[in-house]
């Protein structure tokens, strides 16, 4: 089920999104009609809409559109995609009338099993924007999976760690939680955890992993997920700090849609 500005979306409209691949989105988990960090998701949509289309987004209208798709009970994952169905490859400057596509899928049961990730040299275009352009992310994820890993972990030319394909990464050095000080998309789950748990931002390289006791991935769909392998480096999946972060995240009050 999908709706574009509250109406059934047409094949032509979806074709435009598929062929031009210009737009932005956010994904959020709805639990019994409430969303952790809903205001942050809406702020992200408004910010990215100005960045990509030079237009203001009516976030209250977006909220209404989400409410139409979200069940009152149970859990589901909602994706809100903002794009202009009239976008033309030759004249993307004419894309100034963004519309809101709302879709949903089943929410996964939490917690998910640990991740094994392979480092990949990659820096996303405009990493501060949650863009629909996912080619690079999927290309590196596929390469990692073909090598026996679950996903890719992005590093720059100095082997400094930034983020995963669709998630943020954090570490615990035995004293405190560390979030990489790098260009990346600041995820809503990461921001909520930063409010709930003391942390430090610092550059983290692949060479620094030997001093880390634990690593974890975060996003709205997976919450907090342990990382048990980065390249050849193995880490525990049951470190106490991961359970603490999970509980702190689950204790965050969801906002009503």
CATH top level class name of the largest domain: Alpha Beta
User: Distance between the terminal alpha carbons, to the nearest Å?
Assistant: 19 Å
Please compute the radius of gyration using only Cα atoms: 19 Å
Which percent bin holds the helix content? 25-40%
- Dominant shape: globular
Return the structural class: alpha+beta
How many individual helices? Answer: 6
Sheet of most strands? 9 strands, mixed
Explain the overall architecture:
37% of the residues are buried. The chain has 6 helices and 16 strands. It folds into 2 domains: 2-106, D-amino Acid Aminotransferase, Chain A, domain 1, CATH 3.30.470.10; 115-256, D-amino Acid Aminotransferase, Chain A, domain 2, CATH 3.20.10.10. 27% of the residues lie in helices and 31% in strands. By secondary structure, it is α+β, with helices and mostly antiparallel strands. The strands form 3 sheets. Strands 7, 8, 9, 10, 11, 12, 13, 14 and 15 form a 9-stranded mixed beta sheet that branches. Strands 2-1-6-5-3 form a 5-stranded antiparallel beta sheet, with helices on one face. It has a two-stranded antiparallel ribbon with strand order 4-16.
Give a summary of the structure in a few sentences:
With 257 residues, this protein is of the alpha+beta class. It has 6 helices and 16 strands.
Helix/strand layout:
Elements (H helix, E strand, L loop, with lengths): L1 E3 L2 E2 L2 H10 L3 E8 L2 E2 L2 H16 L5 H11 L5 E9 L15 E8 L8 E7 L13 H12 L4 E5 L5 E4 L3 E5 L4 E4 L7 H9 L2 E4 L11 E6 L3 E8 L2 E2 L5 H11 L4 E2 L1
Parallel strand pairs: 7-8, 7-14, 11-12
Antiparallel strand pairs: 1-2, 1-6, 3-5, 4-16, 5-6, 8-9, 10-11, 10-13, 13-14, 14-15
